[in-house]
Amino acid sequence: xxxxxxxxxxxxxxxxxxxxxxxxxxxxxxxxxxxxxxxxxxxxxxxxxxxxxxxxxxxxxxxxxxxxxxxxxxxxxxxxxxxxxxxxxxxxxxxxxxxxxxxxxxxxx
Length: 109
Fold this sequence. Notes:
Strand content: under 5%
Radius of gyration: 14 Å
Oligomer: single chain
Largest sheet: 2 strands, antiparallel
Distance between the termini: 29 Å
């Protein structure tokens, strides 16, 4: 899959849920390219901002969109890697801020 195809597919499906891509399109395309690379490498689109183990079961929490996206969007307005943002951040109602890692230490390498 090409990055522009992934962009269009995810944009449509996520905006239908009220979730937006970051307005920094260069960042978005860089992250989408990394997702495609991880799909080729591991067989699943592991979050490009985290170290995948090549074990789908171990990594199921970081398959994009990861399980941490919703709480990150609610609390900080963006997910950990910055790919997705909330409507409030998208519309400029809140400022972007640092999003800490939520993945438990035992899952990290």
